[in-house]
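Lab notes, practical 5.
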Amino acid sequence: MKSLVPVISGFFLAFSGFALALGGTVWALQQILLPKIILSNYFWLLFIFLFFLTLIVYILSVLGIQKDGQTGVLSILGGIIIKFLLAAGLFLLILLKSNENQLVLGLNFFSIYLLFTVFEVIFLLRILRHQN
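Output from the prediction step:
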């Protein structure tokens, strides 16, 4: 059984760099386009929540992949479904409790969710490719 530390630390470093670059780009765009509202008041809450949720789901998926093939598939699919349910739950809670622009909030949420999920799946596929 291989050590998981290099795999998880590699993902953590790459994902943190990606998140910092994404957050910096979004912040810069907001400053450039200041009169227009492109960020929800809850953007950073969603960003941080999805960042940590993605880290947790990735670690659990890697642990499942290390056990065996069937467990790996179930852990990846289960992790993505649980991540979606928790993220959508937070999104719906914010959507129902706030009275801000729902279109901006929705676009902020789905853009962060999709970018983080694609990044996670790319790294999971790299692990699966190296196992074969």
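Observations recorded by the TA: Helices lie at 5-32, 43-67, 69-97, 102-131. The mean pLDDT is 90.
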